[in-house]
Amino acid sequence: MKMATKYVKEDGPLTDVHKRTLQKCQYDIVPNLEVRDIIAVCHRDEILTSSMIEEVEAKETGSGRCRAFLQKLEAPSIKAFNSFVDALKEHYDFLATMIKMRLSEEALVQASINLDLAYDIAPIDIETLVPEEFEHTRAILKKIGVMTKHLMVRYNVESEAINEDKEDLNLTKITEGLKINTKSQANQMPPPSIHQIQFSPDREGGASASMDMTLLLGAPKQWIERFPVSSSQIISSVNRSILDVPRIREKSTNRSALPYIRSIAELSNGEHVTCGTDAGYSHKALLYDDQWNAEQILVADKAMCVAPNADIVTASCQTSGRVMLFDIKGVNTRDKINKTLPTIADPVAIAFNQQQELVIANGDKKTISHVNITTGKVVDTTPCGMFKLSYSIAVTNQNNILIADWGDESVKTINRQGDLLACYKGDGDYTLKSPRSVCVDSAGNIIIADYGKHHIQLLSPEGNFKKILMNQSDGLENPTAVAINRQGDILIGTLSRLHEVTYMA
């Protein structure tokens, strides 16, 4: 997408539209961007001075450095903003694309607001205007008309819904009436992702979705596909290819506090959270630093599962039947919210979907519930009997739920109503024996840890077998947990070791 430099001077100061774009994109940029990857380019292009870089580098965490960088970026010119977006393209193309789309959206929204105001304050009697004022106003309106036509051509938008009545000349109503040209694009646009949907609380405290048409107008399919499924992942897997021979590394870790990993996740700051069993057979949830040194106990006993979502860490506890929320430093800053979350007798597995809802598997009733973490209300719960025995769930790009059903030796796919969409059991040498954990990468590929077969299976987004990524001959014994880290690699926890597998190039 090309910046419209015809009407915007690059040497001008950053506009309010640019600043709002950065503010709205922070939620996706902060957990995804390691500023150190682009800091040399930013210094070369004079986006940051040496003193600014020192201030950014002084922050201890990746998210802290990113926030400090974005604050500095609000001061320079539009040229610096454009240079920043260009710097992202090499390693963070999905972020560059997202920022451009959001900038376009903000510009259209601001134009709508400004034209609404112009219409409201326009004189009723144009005869009151002196000739010079009238000609100047007329020239501006003609320019607006020409630019609007060019935009509608660029976005391939029909204007049939625009009514010429005075009431419908309000631009907000006009933009609400704009629609994608269904003849040429309806079958080309993919299902919306989290970046294309606006959510608002419904009457039950849940989340209702409405398509953000301004953001979708004219968006090429390849842009949308580049967005990652999770904001905790740095690298999108969509445009990467699967390696013929995965690169396997055993991580050097200090995990004596929790040798047996039950579930695992990497956080946006590079640290980790795990759930497992210690030497005394207590089931704990622990927070580790980026060198795998235990920092803090989140749940002291009967911990069941952990899951991250941007700057939130969740841990479920069998004793209390609660799912607790922490910040990425392990500080429970959400006491008020925690008290409102529902009590579930046996919260064996947890995950987040793209609507930022907490998805909880109830090991007692074998149900899957969706919870709004802001209100604490249960939005949806499936019927009973969704699985036999499970310790891990994941959410697909389509917001369906994957269940690693140990008891049924299968991985099931259900929708939020509980309808069974697919059931994968494997075949031949790849028949599942004890599927212990499941996760999804940003391309929608499904990764399964089979505890009994000592291997890691890779499936396509459609649930078809692709290959074995790691097995016993590679040193894998009883895998118990899989997760995707920020680099797009797989973290594999076992009874005694931790592996990292690079499987995409």
TrEMBL record:
One of its GO terms (molecular function) is ubiquitin protein ligase activity. InterPro entries: 6-blade_b-propeller_TolB-like (IPR011042), CARD (IPR001315), DEATH-like_dom_sf (IPR011029), NHL_repeat (IPR001258), TRIM-NHL_E3_ligases (IPR050952). It holds the Pfam family CARD. Gene3D superfamilies: Death Domain, Fas (1.10.533.10), TolB, C-terminal domain (2.120.10.30). GO terms for biological process: proteasome-mediated ubiquitin-dependent protein catabolic process; protein polyubiquitination; regulation of apoptotic process. This is Uncharacterized protein.
